[in-house]
Amino acid sequence: MSLSLAADAAAVTATMLSAFGAVPQLRRIAATGDIAGVSAATAALGVTTELTWFAYSADESLWTAMPEAVLMAVANMALLVLVCGRGATWRPPVFGAIGWAVVLAGIGVAGGTRTLGPVLGAAYLVQVAPAVRDRDADADRPGFSHGDRADSATILMTGRVVATPARRAPRPR
């Protein structure tokens, strides 16, 4: 298998996983209005990051990577609209995303797409940082085990806050 074919297959796989991965959270919020564990800031930063990925992919002629960027930009925008429509504040996340866009544009202008590519690879950490911060700051949220660092790892791997059963204290013997 050629390197180009492998890269195309990886891009198609990423597109399918991303698109299907976003649906349950969007459906849950639309159906129940429950926004617990969803970060408006992560969604707003995600829109900016994905649009930058789209521009980078177009400039580098990475055509198979473009659908994933578009789908995830749309999914993040839908998530932001749903969360803010259910009561989350929109100004700080949107202004943060605008600031992030300025940073990414500055990097692109100063270093070109060859510099922007590696930065976008690390940009996911910036995107999910608010979700990790919010998860650690909200100790009263039911159903979360705050002694379990795997929750933060799950956020970093998936970009979503996932409830885990609270740990029970061991029974005395």
Major β-sheet annotation = none
* H/E element order: HHHHH
Name the poorly predicted regions.
142-171
Tell me, rounded to a whole number, the average pLDDT. 78
DSSP strand tally: 0
How big a fraction of the residues is strand? under 5%
- Overall geometry: globular
First and last CA, distance: 59 Å
Helix-residue proportion: over 70%
Radius of gyration: 18 Å
Descriptors for this entry?
5 helices, single chain, mainly alpha, 173 residues
Task: Describe the protein in words.
The chain is mainly α and 173 residues long. It contains five helices and no strands. The chain has helices spanning 3-32, 40-59, 66-85, 91-137, 150-158. Helix 1 (3-32) runs parallel beside helix 3 and helix 2 (40-59) runs antiparallel to helix 3. The radius of gyration is 18 Å and the shape is globular. The termini are far apart. The model is unreliable at 142-171 (pLDDT under 50).
